[in-house]
Design brief:
The structure is a single chain. The protein has six helices and no strands. The chain is mostly helical. The radius of gyration is 15 Å and the shape is globular.
């Protein structure tokens, strides 16, 4: 288990070194498949819509996100700190 934590911390340290959008693009395109990147952007879009007061039905329609994934995003938006700190509401 400790090795997994070490590996996660190493990933976070690499991400913290990124300075530009181009840096992020290069790293994430190397690390992730197109589908994984698409799913992450879908989750951020869903979080923004939820933070703007959209209903589950509207979010699913606008993002094509699954209800199970939306439920997870909703839980993070309500009880987590990450989305609130880093996702700007339009």
């Amino acid at each position: 288990m400790n090795n997994n934590i070490d590996n996660l911390n190493e990933l976070y340290e690499v991400i913290l070194k990124l300075k530009t959008i181009e840096d992020c693009k290069e790293l994430f395109e190397d690390l992730c498949t197109f589908k994984e990147l698409e799913q992450m952007t879908q989750r951020i879009s869903a979080a923004k819509l939820l933070l703007n007061g959209e209903t589950y039905e509207a979010v699913i329609k606008k993002t094509n996100i699954s209800s199970a994934t939306l439920s997870r995003v909703s839980k993070c938006v309500k009880y987590g700190d990450g989305y609130k700190k880093f996702v700007s509401v339009d």
